[in-house]
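Exercise (ungraded).
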Amino acid sequence: MTDATQQRTAPATEVIPPRRTVLGWAAFAFLAVSQLIAVRLSPPDRDMGHLQKIMYVHVPAAWSSLIAVVVVAATSSVLYLWKREEKYDLLAASAAEVGVVLMSLTIILGSIWGRPTWGTWWAWDARLTSMAVLLLIFIGYLALRAATDDEDRRARWSAAVAILGAINAYVVYMSVRWWRTLHQIQSSPATVDPAYVIGLRLNAIAFLLLMIYFVSERYRTARLERATERALEDQALSRRGGGEGGGGGK
Amino acid sequence: MPDVVWRRELGRVLAVARKDLAIERRSKATLNAVIFFAALTLLLFGFALGADTSAMRDAAAGVLWLTVLFSGVLVFNRSYQLELEAQSLESLLLYPGERRAIFLGKLLANLAIVFVVEVVTVPAAGILYQVPFWPHLIPLIGVLLLGSIGFVGLGTFYAAIASRVRSREVLLPLLLFPMLVPVLIAAVEATTAILAGDPMGNSGAWVRLLAAFDAIFLVAAFFAFEYVIGD
Amino acid sequence: MNNLEFVVAAYAVTWIVLISYAIRLRRGETTAEEAYARAMQEEPR
């Protein structure tokens, strides 16, 4: 018997969260419906024609990406440093990855909106620019994780990077905004017209649901991968112990 | 007795700083290389901006700060490398409260080195880009101080991570520079205003932003260092 | 009615990005599930 060589107190069966297939389909369906409603509801703007409709994807993408990064990833990082439970580290990493995807989408959409509005693909708009900086901060986060093999270090270090990055999100925005007002007049998309609010809210909820779905699936994959790693490590350990002339010849 | 504790803490901080600086003074390798790199960067920016002296003058503050950032970043990894190679980091960590002393000590040492680089770089930039730094020396030193503290503080922090990972040369700038955007913006704006004699009194607001940034992130890095250096 | 092509482009990009990412997540998850199942089957006696 090789039980004596089992060093690790790994649980016999780890609870892996289930697939959220229904949530996925529901979120995408809700998004489609919300977009249809919003597009039908909103009249063409006097100045910009139908361009305002881009706000129904750009703004919700921005909001959900910020929630993913500043709320989920940073909070999870704090929880990890406090409780040192691996699941918080995996949740933070999952949220950061989803946040990076959504931030990239936000910036691309902002650029698409900007081209007919400003005449250029990039005009150093304060919000887009500060989002680009935040995107780079979390790309750095992912790069750090990829470059660190030791799980404990990876978890601690990326938690610190996420927390400091999230703290800086607002500071970066304020700095860039002051910098912009100093050099040029602001020209940000206006979103206050009441005709647009309902559509915007619906789409915001849709994007939030999608973000939650993405994070939970990514998190599930991360948990599966870690559980597999641990199982393989345990097997390698027990095999080695059994192979060396029968479990620790005492 | 809190007073004794303070003195002991300060003593440890200074000991770490003195040790780092002593190693640096003995070899002088890094400092010289960094200063030459800074001079080189100033020249390269000059070529890139073209022969138009008014363009150079407008860009001078920006070029100066970018030069400080690009050269300064070369200093930080090295401050952990020596211990990494000698594997003496573990022995440093045996004392309680030692980690924070390490952070502050290394911060002070790096700050001293960056200052030396700036003492050479600022006059060089003044000459190459034809901007008058001497008449505005005091406010300039103030901005340099505040900007450098934020720069070196975060640089010392992130280098504790980056220096122990592969691809450290690119990872440190990748982690550090996005975080420094507020410092870069505020420092360049304040410097530009000061060099122009600050006609609109803008520099005050930017200096306050720098001070706030320094306060926030020195505290944040100070507390986070605990989690980053313990192994 | 000008600018319509930008609106269409924006919505197209949105759906392409979201669906591609969803598919990529699913594929990664399936791979992880299979590896997990294989590892669980070989539990030491």
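Further reading is listed at the end of the chapter. For now, observe: The interface with chain A takes residues 1-4, 6-7, 9-11, 13-14, 17-19, 21-22, 25-26, 28-29, 32-33, 35-36, 39-40, 42-45 of chain C (CB under 8 Å). The CA atoms of residues 8 and 14 of chain C lie 10 Å apart.
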